[in-house]
């Protein structure tokens, strides 16, 4: 049984890598849905505790207001931020023209590519570990 534990772990690593690749492909596939841009205004900055895995982390969350075709969207979490943003700053966001409540930052493509690259490396590493374990016997 103990000799199968590394193989099972390696299989889980491969699955994890595949999930990352699929997430990246989905992100790239949906990037064209965000076909319009609008300027939004930072209206609030809050520090909030968020659970990441088993750890709680204090993160800074930026909220924006924007308007599309006369409809106002208020106090919406900003999809991307940097530590230099202040209340009153203007940021450009992307939105879906069919549903302007769905917004994104400008780094959609790079995020998708990063997910695919990391997932491929992780999955490949898992595959190599499986092959290595099976060849050793």
Number of continuous helical runs: 2
Number of DSSP-assigned strands: 5
| Global geometry | elongated
String of helices and strands: HEEEEEH
Cα-to-Cα separation, first versus last residue? 13 Å
Spatial ordering of strands, largest sheet:
3-2-1-4-5
What does the oligomeric state look like here?
single chain
Low-pLDDT runs: none
Rg measurement, Å? 21 Å
Mean pLDDT: 88
Major β-sheet annotation? 5 strands, antiparallel
What percentage of residues falls in helices of 4 or more residues?
Answer: 40-55%
State which percent range the strand residues make up: 35-45%
| Class of secondary structure makeup | alpha+beta
Question: Brief overview, please?
Answer:
It is built from two helices and five strands. The chain is of the alpha+beta class and 137 residues long. The longest helix is centred in the last third of the chain and has 29 residues, at 108-136.
Mind explaining what this structure looks like?
It is a single chain. The protein is of the alpha+beta class. The chain is 40% helix and 37% strand. The protein has 2 helices and 5 strands. It has a 5-stranded antiparallel beta sheet, with no helix packed on it. Helix 1 runs antiparallel to helix 2 (108-136). The protein starts with a helix and ends with a helix. The model has no long low-confidence stretch (mean pLDDT 88).
Primary descriptors:
137 residues; alpha+beta; 2 helices; 40% helix; 37% strand
């Amino acid at each position: 049984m103990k000799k199968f534990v590394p193989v099972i772990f390696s299989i889980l690593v491969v699955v994890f890598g595949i999930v990352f690749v699929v997430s990246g492909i989905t992100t790239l596939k949906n990037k064209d849905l965000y076909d319009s841009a609008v300027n939004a205004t930072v209206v609030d900055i809050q520090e909030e505790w968020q659970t990441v895995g088993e750890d709680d982390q204090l993160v800074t969350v930026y909220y924006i207001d924007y308007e599309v075709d006369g409809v106002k969207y208020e106090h919406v979490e900003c999809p991307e931020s940097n530590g230099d943003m202040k209340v009153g700053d203007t940021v450009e966001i992307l939105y879906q023209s069919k549903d302007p409540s769905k917004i994104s930052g400008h780094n959609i493509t790079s995020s998708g590519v990063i997910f695919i690259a990391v997932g491929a490396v992780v999955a490949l590493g898992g595959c190599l570990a499986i092959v290595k374990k099976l060849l050793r016997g």
